[in-house]
Specification:
single chain; 238 residues; alpha+beta; Glutaredoxin; five-stranded mixed sheet; two-stranded antiparallel ribbon; 10 helices; globular
Length: 238
């Protein structure tokens, strides 16, 4: 399954290069192992590839984009929910970015999943977030996963914790659980990671601002965004 068109257009308009600076590198052998194949049914017990599957993918894709359609600049975050550097950036900088640039209409923010093989729960955490995204609750689950990272990263099976977090975001938990169990968003997560890795990016977090790439939790997004705005940034596809 290819990445949904919306984020393909975003990345197509972005110059991607190698980035690694105070970030969590994907260097373990486990990172090279293929992810498990997704189930062949959707939440509606419809064969994969059907309109129902496409609808889930479409909802999950749009749910991980924040900001006004008229915003002139895209900011893309490639991240791993179990990455400590990603959590550090989230805890210190995420809300500042939202308040200062998303809510003011200056940028649209999109999230790309880059689960690293060194993190045992990175993929299932991404599935938890993307299945919440299919119900319009991606950013709530995104925040909850980072806030509770220390709680779930060390347990053998984080599914009960993730289900509790999902319930607190307001999703239909039964639908969310079926989505996770059947791996309905796993193809999107795999496509996210493959797209970023194929561009030789091998660390998290990594940020793309217009045609700039900014690696690491200490990335200075504000100046990069201000510079892009001063140059008269345009939305991908325009």
């Amino acid at each position: 399954m290819l990445m949904p068109p919306a984020l393909l257009r975003i990345l197509a308009a972005t110059t991607l290069v190698v980035a690694c600076s105070r970030s969590d590198a994907a260097s373990s052998d486990a990172a090279k192992k293929p992810a498990p194949a997704p189930a062949t049914t959707t939440a509606d017990a419809t064969p994969a590839g059907s309109a129902a599957q496409d609808t889930i993918s479409s909802r999950a894709d749009s749910g991980r984009v924040m900001g006004k359609a008229s915003a002139p600049i895209w900011v893309i975050e490639a991240s791993d929910f179990q990455c400590p550097f990603c959590k550090d950036w989230h805890d210190k900088e995420f809300q500042k970015l939202v308040d200062g640039y998303v809510k003011t209409g200056k940028i649209r923010l999109a999230f790309l999943n880059m689960p690293l093989g060194m993190h045992q729960h990175a993929v299932v955490a991404a599935e938890a977030a993307m299945c919440a995204s299919a119900q319009g609750k991606f950013w709530q689950m995104h925040d909850a996963l980072f806030a509770s990272q220390k709680e779930w990263e060390a347990v053998q099976d984080p599914s009960a914790i993730f289900a509790s977090l999902a319930g607190k975001t307001g999703v239909n938990v039964a639908t969310w659980q079926k989505c996770v169990k059947d791996h309905l968003t796993l193809p999107m997560i795999q496509a996210d990671r493959e797209r970023v890795v194929s561009a030789h990016v091998n660390s998290t977090p990594t940020f793309f601002v217009g045609d700039q790439i900014l690696p690491g939790s200490d990335a200075r997004l504000g100046p990069a965004i201000d510079s892009a705005l001063a140059k008269g940034g345009k939305k991908p596809g325009n």
